[in-house]
Structure prediction request, 311 residues.
Amino acid sequence: MELTRSPVLLCIRSRDLSNLNNYGSSGTMSLFQSIEADDHEQLTIQMLSCILPNSWYNLSSTIGNNVLRFIETGDSELTTITIPNGSYNIDELISKVKELLDANSSNNCTYTLTYDVITNAVSITHNKTSTITTEFDFLIEPNIRRMLGFTQGEFNITSSNPTISSDRAVDITDTFNSLYLRTNLSNLKVIESSTNKFSNILAHIPIDLQRNDFIIYNPPQPFEMSLNSKSINRIDLSFTFQNENTILDLGRGDWEVNLLVNYRRQPRAERIHKNIHLNINQKLKELEEKQKINDNKINEIKSLRTKYKVK
Prediction:
């Protein structure tokens, strides 16, 4: 579709938004003057660039991946340890897990966790494997299994199997390896796999693993999304993980995003379809109005029959 006039560039800073949530990841921009398309035009929108702080924790109670459950010989129930919220690399994580396992071992076991960078796997054992059995429960969600490289299941340290090792790749991001920019602007152009339905996603942003740094994203070919509406007076912006119900806590860090709104000539087929749709709606309104008038007349006649007792 050809451009009909110059586009509008929206330069947005999170600190300027209203209704900014407590995590700093979503807010609203209300335009002083609406962006309006003519009848022959269609609005489209693109994310040209964004700057985001990599300030969220890859392990946290907010995400729900900070728990490890285990049971040792003689225990009557599972012991649950909670890893403090934070941004961990794999070495820092296994060091903290070891510390908490040792502190919560009912049999005073000393645990050893090692990470092999060549195989990208974690191994776990302890110093009393000949007499003490330990079962790690990775069935109950939430837990840290993906960060340690384990599938959903139960893994046992025994005398015959003194060491357990990752049976899947260690993923220190816990699969939270990209962000999505979502808006309130309606469209039927994006489908996401988590729901298999049309989505409110405008852009996908890969995550650089450099914690406490800034993600600078300039897509070489920004996705251009056609809008159903012919006017924009408010834009709700929200950065989320793929599951938008999982909270993205930016620690109130500031971010910036540049959006481009284009005016494009609406394809003739779409104009015809829209005109037909408008005509149908107009005819329907006219029929509904006639029906209302007829209903009123019928009610008047019924009232007169009742008043004069006409049979």
About this structure: Residues 268-308 form the longest helix (41 residues). The radius of gyration is 30 Å. The helical segments are 90-104, 145-148, 268-308. Residues 3-56+177-266 form a domain with the Jelly Rolls fold (CATH 2.60.120.1100).
